[in-house]
Amino acid sequence: EKSMPAAWLERGDVLAALARAYGEIGEFTKATELYQGATRSDAGAVSLESMKEFANQMVRGAWKDFKDGKIKRAEALKAVTEAIRLLEGLLAIGETHERRTLLASTYKRKAALVMSDEDKREALQNMLKHAETASRSAARAMKSSGDKAAARGAFLYAENLRLVAQYLLRPLARATKGAGGGRGISLQNFRSDLER
Description:
Layout: H1 12-24, H2 28-40, H3 48-67, H4 73-93, H5 97-113, H6 117-144, H7 148-176, H8 187-195
């Protein structure tokens, strides 16, 4: 990056390529900064794929920084909410099962960050909705796509997200019906139930 001509670092396409490379090595904060620069650049086109990756890196970085104690819950939630806005904008441009799956995964992070049962329920319902749509789309792609292995992988990931959302919504549904006293929502509870 430092050895590049300064003019290259003003191009959105170059910044997006660098951001993708930083994201691949787990440098999510740097990737997010570069993607932000790419979106503000007047020179060089930034692809829709780059915008999807921008949202993905934003969420991954915010989640990692939150888990590492580098940022507060509110800051992580702000980044996740911004990523949701960006992904929903991409869906408005064109529907893909990959965008839907990423949006479902982003809502999973939102559900983990919000505090109230009502906000968790809303995030998980959105996660479920997008995972179901992605699953149906990927299932169709498995039948018609030349790359059946990639379509199958997308289908399995979307199904995984769908099942997790359904599972995590169960205690919230019981609490709403007045059953109360559930074990609460956590991936630790999910894992322990799977091991039984």
